[in-house]
Amino acid sequence: MIEITSYLRTKSGGFTPVPDTTSAPSDPSYVEGAIELTINGVRILDQELWDYVDELWSYISDMVLSLKHEDEAATYFPDQPIRLSFKRLGGGLVLVSLTYDDIKRATSVDERELVEALQRAGTKFFTRMKELLPGNAQGYDDALARLMGHVNP
After folding, report:
1. How deeply is 69 buried, as exposed, middle or buried, from its count of CB atoms within 10 A (0-12, 13-18, 19+)?
2. Which of 12, 74, 78, 97 is the most exposed place for a label (fewest CB within 10 A)?
């Protein structure tokens, strides 16, 4: 089971789920927030790892597209030395891992399930962000196109 929730960081330092956000981020160039990603009970991403969330989603879109042609895709967070990777294990499985400092979080999951969950969550995120920040719509559309570029057989 895969659970994905995207958040925007509030001025007070809290987090609001993107669908519940009623006002645009104050700086459209630096959209602070977090993604929570839990796979089979293993928390891979959480609010403690907040960063520029729209850029992180864009990087994840690139990873999903890369995974279509490569056996491994990885990225670093926009403003932190945190590495997120997807590595094909065979048998339809992908190892999802996050590494930073002395911390490593990892679990395996069905590739199709992972890609479909990321596509659903990314679509919700980018659709709402286009409403909140219409000036960023082209970039969000481009990232969404890359995310959806990995079509499952």
Report:
1. exposed
2. 12
